Batch of 3 targets.
Target 1
Amino acid sequence: EQAVIHMEAKDSVYSNEKSSAIARLEAQFEFDKKEEKLKDEQLAKELKLEKRNQQNLIASFGGGIIILLVALFIYFQYRQRSKYAKKIEETMASKEKLFSVIAHDLKSPLSAFTSMSSTLAENIGAFQKEQIVTYLKKFEKSSQNLSELLNNLLQWSLSQTGSLSVNPETLDIKQ
């Protein structure tokens, strides 16, 4: 019977040792499981942070490219406007020069008219008929020249506005 008790005691101790070993293994398993879960969570956080960093980098790069494109657009607009401003200044200078030439060309015949008409009006009695005829012929010639100049200016103006139709022809220069 003692042998049975001893066997039971031995089985009981063995069973307790096995139970303790199983409990330790279960505890170790639970600990390892929780540690693995923490590692997985940490890895997920790191991956999420890495993904966010990549998104931020891409957004920063994209923003930089957009800023660069806007800056280039503004620069080219500025250059284009500068070119237009320069062309406008050149055009305005040409226009002013042209008006100056036109005014000079119109002033000469009008001055001649004024001078001749004043001389004729003030001294009509002092002139002979032939002299008056000569003055009138000069008036006629000056008025024709002035009329031709004004017609040329009108034709030029129409050509500049596109209101004048052009019909080019081939000419034989030798003839």
Target 2
Amino acid sequence: DEAGEAIEAAAMHFEESGLGLAESPRFCAVRATFAKEKKELDRAEAIFEECLEDYPINFLVVDEAVKFFDGLGRPERSLEIMRKAYEEAPTFRSYRLSLAYRLTQAGEDEEAEALLKEATAVASPALAASAWADLASYYFGRERLDDAIAAFEEALARVPDPGPEFFFAYADALVAAERYDRALELADRMTVKPHRELIRGRVALAR
């Protein structure tokens, strides 16, 4: 109770002194989260809604609000929050992936796939490669192995050396699709020894 009073007093003080803290997204999220921790759920919801109105794309506000509504068993509100955040910040990869995940959870697979595909059309080769890799992971998670491999190839065509995690994920998909020779080719290009040995071991076991 004393902490809650101090938070509200701080908000009033900074507002009166014109220092701006009371209008910061972090402070807004702190107030809402504190109300949640005190089990004042109606008050917490009201504050979160105010925060989202003022800072709809701030990561801390969006993240805490989504956690709050998920905890209330209201994933549909969390989906609305993520949709709006992505609409206002379409280049933010984290929001795109979160929205795609939530769409899938809601049974909207076609919309999720279209969302990830749309991101591959950007002009930047690096951003396009990242978007193709995300799409490949989406396909792989649904056991659409041929689609996943095609998407990985699209990413590789744009950025020839996308990094160790990419090579490992791509080789993993190749092994799952029984394309062992191609997986071993990628293993030879891997700079992380555990990745290289794991892929070689998986191929040997599968054969």
Target 3
Amino acid sequence: LEKIEAEARAYSESFARFKQETNVNYNEVYRQGMLNFMGQSKDPLILTGSAYDEKKMMAQNRERNDQTGKFFIHFNKLILCYFFHDYAQALEHARESRTLLEAVLAKFEIPNHHFYEALTLLALYPKAGRGEKFRMMARVQNNMLKLKKWAKYAPENYEHKYLLIKAERLRVLGRFSPARMVYDQAIQKAST
């Protein structure tokens, strides 16, 4: 992560030299996420630190009607909240970023949004009410279908993600034996 963060910093410096403010902002939100994972922020769930200030940038994105910039904040916070086990907040960021998906058409974030949204829903599923469980599983199924389709055309990027969601779904439904087999498949595909 340190190496990738250093590369991201170099890109931001290059963008800044050419006065490409928007590219700097888009790159720095991701770099701040990296710094958060590296423990270099006061709160790992807040994209504020040496690279970025989420409150300032969210206000700027609203002022400029920068839907892409808003998406990048919510998408990064979705990932951070999921990894740091704040699933309720992760779900809020999944919902917010879902409304902004058109701002990032044809970008890698779309399948990854569906992946992390499904993981978040599955993490929340066991404690959800009956009606909510139905809605959550419908969204998970929808996201799985999309990941399965993308896996058909780019298995090296998406097949392991599809399989991980499939395994998690089996696990939360109490089907532990088949879940173990699918987890193993996901690990194998991610390793190749």
